[in-house]
Design a protein that fits this description.
Elements (H helix, E strand, L loop, with lengths): L1 E2 L4 E10 L16 H11 L2 E10 L8 H7 L6 H19 L1
Parallel strand pairs: 2-3
Antiparallel strand pairs: 1-2
Protein backbone atom coordinates (compact mmCIF):
# COMPACT_ATOMS: atom_id res chain seq x y z
CA UNK A 1 0.00 0.00 0.00
CA UNK A 2 1.60 3.25 -1.11
CA UNK A 3 0.58 6.79 -0.29
CA UNK A 4 2.20 9.12 -2.81
CA UNK A 5 1.25 12.30 -0.87
CA UNK A 6 3.17 11.28 2.23
CA UNK A 7 5.77 9.44 0.16
CA UNK A 8 5.50 6.28 2.27
CA UNK A 9 4.97 2.70 1.20
CA UNK A 10 3.97 -0.11 3.56
CA UNK A 11 5.08 -3.64 2.71
CA UNK A 12 2.65 -5.79 4.68
CA UNK A 13 4.03 -9.26 5.45
CA UNK A 14 1.19 -11.55 6.52
CA UNK A 15 2.14 -14.87 8.11
CA UNK A 16 -0.07 -17.54 9.62
CA UNK A 17 2.09 -19.78 11.77
CA UNK A 18 1.68 -22.79 13.99
CA UNK A 19 0.53 -21.49 17.39
CA UNK A 20 3.63 -22.82 19.15
CA UNK A 21 5.85 -20.90 16.68
CA UNK A 22 4.12 -17.50 16.76
CA UNK A 23 6.30 -15.77 19.35
CA UNK A 24 9.63 -17.35 18.50
CA UNK A 25 12.38 -14.98 17.47
CA UNK A 26 12.63 -16.15 13.86
CA UNK A 27 8.92 -16.59 13.17
CA UNK A 28 9.06 -13.95 10.40
CA UNK A 29 12.49 -12.93 9.20
CA UNK A 30 12.18 -9.35 7.98
CA UNK A 31 15.67 -9.48 6.49
CA UNK A 32 14.19 -11.64 3.72
CA UNK A 33 12.22 -8.60 2.60
CA UNK A 34 15.04 -6.05 2.88
CA UNK A 35 15.93 -6.27 -0.83
CA UNK A 36 12.31 -5.60 -1.79
CA UNK A 37 12.20 -2.66 0.61
CA UNK A 38 15.35 -1.15 -0.94
CA UNK A 39 14.13 -1.76 -4.49
CA UNK A 40 10.74 -0.14 -3.83
CA UNK A 41 12.34 2.86 -2.15
CA UNK A 42 14.61 3.47 -5.13
CA UNK A 43 12.09 2.73 -7.85
CA UNK A 44 9.18 4.77 -6.50
CA UNK A 45 11.20 7.40 -4.57
CA UNK A 46 9.24 6.74 -1.38
CA UNK A 47 10.08 5.81 2.21
CA UNK A 48 9.31 2.10 2.67
CA UNK A 49 8.40 0.34 5.90
CA UNK A 50 7.88 -3.39 6.45
CA UNK A 51 4.88 -4.20 8.65
CA UNK A 52 4.74 -7.81 9.92
CA UNK A 53 1.29 -9.23 10.72
CA UNK A 54 1.84 -12.63 12.36
CA UNK A 55 -0.98 -14.66 13.86
CA UNK A 56 -1.26 -18.29 14.90
CA UNK A 57 -3.44 -20.71 12.97
CA UNK A 58 -5.76 -21.07 15.96
CA UNK A 59 -5.81 -17.39 16.94
CA UNK A 60 -2.62 -16.83 18.97
CA UNK A 61 -1.32 -13.31 18.39
CA UNK A 62 2.33 -12.30 18.13
CA UNK A 63 3.53 -9.74 20.65
CA UNK A 64 3.33 -6.27 19.11
CA UNK A 65 0.56 -7.19 16.64
CA UNK A 66 -1.69 -4.38 17.89
CA UNK A 67 1.07 -1.82 17.34
CA UNK A 68 1.65 -3.11 13.80
CA UNK A 69 -2.08 -3.08 13.00
CA UNK A 70 -2.24 0.60 14.00
CA UNK A 71 0.21 1.38 11.20
CA UNK A 72 -2.22 0.02 8.59
CA UNK A 73 -4.86 2.26 7.00
CA UNK A 74 -8.46 1.71 7.96
CA UNK A 75 -9.35 0.07 11.25
CA UNK A 76 -8.13 -3.53 11.22
CA UNK A 77 -8.69 -5.22 14.54
CA UNK A 78 -6.79 -8.20 15.88
CA UNK A 79 -10.10 -9.60 17.12
CA UNK A 80 -11.37 -9.71 13.54
CA UNK A 81 -8.27 -11.69 12.51
CA UNK A 82 -8.84 -14.15 15.34
CA UNK A 83 -12.54 -14.60 14.51
CA UNK A 84 -11.72 -15.22 10.86
CA UNK A 85 -9.10 -17.83 11.71
CA UNK A 86 -11.32 -19.55 14.28
CA UNK A 87 -14.20 -19.82 11.79
CA UNK A 88 -11.79 -21.21 9.19
CA UNK A 89 -10.51 -23.79 11.67
CA UNK A 90 -14.10 -24.71 12.57
CA UNK A 91 -14.98 -25.19 8.89
CA UNK A 92 -11.92 -27.39 8.30
CA UNK A 93 -12.73 -29.55 11.34
CA UNK A 94 -16.32 -29.89 10.16
CA UNK A 95 -15.25 -31.03 6.68
CA UNK A 96 -12.54 -33.41 7.88
CA UNK A 97 -14.87 -34.75 10.57
Amino acid sequence: MCDRKEKTCLLIVVAIKDDSDVNTKGSVTLSNYKDLEIEDSGMWKVRTKIVPVVIGALGTMKKGLGRNLQLLPGDPASLQLQITLMSTAHSICKVLG
